[in-house]
Every structure is written in C-alpha cells, then in structure tokens.
Amino acid sequence: MASEEIMHAQDAGAGTLPAGSSAWSGGAAPYAIVSKKLGMWLFIISDAITFGSLLFAYTYVRVASVQWPMPFHAWPSIANATLMTVVLLSSSLTMVMAVRSARIGSRSHAVRWLFATMAGGLAFIVLHAREWMGLIDEGVRLFKNPWGTPLFGAAFFSLTGLHMTHVGIGVVYLGVIAFGQAAGKFKPEDVEVSGLYWHFVDLVWMFIFPLVYLMSAHLG
Amino acid sequence: MNHVAEEPHAAGSGRLFLFIWVLLLAFTGIEVVLTYQNLGVHLMLVLLLGLSVVKAYLIIAYFMHLRYERPSLAITLIPPLVAILCLLFLAFPDSLRLLHLRPR
Predict the structure, then answer these.
(1) Searching chain A, which residue's CA lies closest to the CA of residue B102?
(2) How many CB atoms neighbour CB B42 within 10 A?
(3) Spatial separation of the C-alpha atoms in residues B16 and B7, rounded to whole Å
(4) N or C: where does chain B have the smaller number of CB atoms within 10 Å of the terminal CB?
(5) CA distance B85 to chain A (A)
(6) pLDDT over threshold 60, residue A174
(7) CATH topology assigned to domain A35-216
(8) A126 contacts: CB under 8 Å, gap ≥ 6
(9) Please, which pLDDT band fits residue B101 given cuts at 50, 70 and 90?
C-alpha cells in the first residue's frame, strides 16, 4: 500500500536521507526520532506548562501574603524532603541505566533497573505520604492551618499532590514496561520513552523542593 | 508498524550518568546549605532558581538525552516553553500590588 510505505518512510531514520534533500522535505522524520518519542516530548512540554502554572499561582499567593507559614524544621521536614530528593534523583539514575541496558540488548538487566526505579518511586511516595499525614495531624487543611495564610495548605497539597500523582502513574507505567520487557514485548525505544516521563517527574521535583520546602524552611 | 529507525547513537556511558548524578546531588546539597545561611529572601530565590535551572539542564540534556538529539528538537521544545512561562510570570508584579493593598 502506498500509504503504508509513506508511514514507514516517515518513521525511517533521517540517516537515510537522499543526498541534497532536507530533513523537512518529507519522507523522513525531521527530528530523527520515532513518533512516540516526539509524542512523549510534546506531552512533557504541556505538563511542564501545567506545573509552571501551579508554581506561578503559588508564587503569586505567597508574595501577596503578609504571613506565609515557614513550618518546615530541619528535622524532620527538611531532612525528609532532602531524602526524597536523593531518592528521586537516584531513581533517575537507575532509569537511565535501564534505558542503556535495553539499548545494548541486555533485557534482564533492563528489567532489574526498571524495578529499581519503581522501588525508588514507591519509596518517594511512602516518605511523602508520611509527611502529609504529619502535616494533617498538625492541623493543616486545604483552607486553614495553625500558622498563617490560609491558602498555604491549598498551595502545598495541590502542588505536591499533583506531583505525587504523577509519580504514582509513573510507577504503574514503568511496571507495564518492565513486565512487557521481561516478556519480550517492548522495544528499547519504549523503555526510553518511559524514561523521558520519569525524568520529567524528577525535573518537576527539582523546582518544587527548593521553592516549596527550602523557601519555607523554619529558620532561627 | 514502526521500524526502530532512529539514528544509531551511543548508548551513553554509565560513568557519565554516574557523574551527572553526583553533580545533581552536590547541587542539592548546596541548596540545602544555602537555606541556612540567612540570606535575604530575594537572593535566596535567585540562587535557588538558578541552581534549579542548572539541575534541570543536566537532567534534560543528559538523562533525557536531548543534547544528543537533533538540534531542531531542542529548538522546537524549549524556547516555546520558556516563552510561555515568561508570559505567565508577566502577571507576577500584580501580587505586589495585592500585598500593598492589604489593610495593615
């Protein structure tokens, strides 16, 4: 079928460009990546805008407040958040190792690295949930808290809650990829695409950790 | 059916990834230490944001492999994102107006 041939050609590597033609003249993938990877990148950009909006709302409300709570003591809050950061960064390392193993053909190693990444994600969620329980015990709710501006709770829980949801979805996604890899169903590029999502989740935390936790660290 | 059809690229050296990870941890440590230096709010914010952007670059360029892709991909993805975030934060000074409006 002519249309199938065109589809094949569009996903073909740009290394096969005929001499003198440009990557944009059709018949080859302009970014030299498979479409599912481009799709994941585009989703990541849109999700980055979503988190950017939430961070902006948080910034706005905080600057406009007279008394924004700074309740995170070095122990246990900042220590816990720092541990969560280390765990998530390490899970990104194991993810990158999983992609590398998949690319060089060691499927069983890739599966093991994927499980390690999932374990990191689960550890992150457990630490985070414990922190949430602690805050709720202290009286923090969506629209009131014992310390200052009522919206602290809404800002904190919405930002970290959306992020935690992304981590949870990521763990499930990685599980599907891991079991599929074990059964030989997925290609290395599928592992790589799931890795892009996971690194994005880590990336968002790189902004949430300093802006929400460190800027509200209890000093003095 | 899709071919696996990307340009062959280096699988990436494990040692490079380990090095990037160490850098990320180091920057995290610097951020935590800075928190307790009693700097002014504005300086803290600038430093923390600056460090976060550096960490973001390391993750995007190396872990997400964007540095090794076609430049056109990075050009398509990053500048529009930055532009949209700038447009968002254009409204930020209004929060100061709100702050000054409050009854003291």
Answers:
(1) A66
(2) 8
(3) 21
(4) C
(5) 7
(6) yes
(7) Four Helix Bundle (Hemerythrin (Met), subunit A) (1.20.120)
(8) none
(9) confident
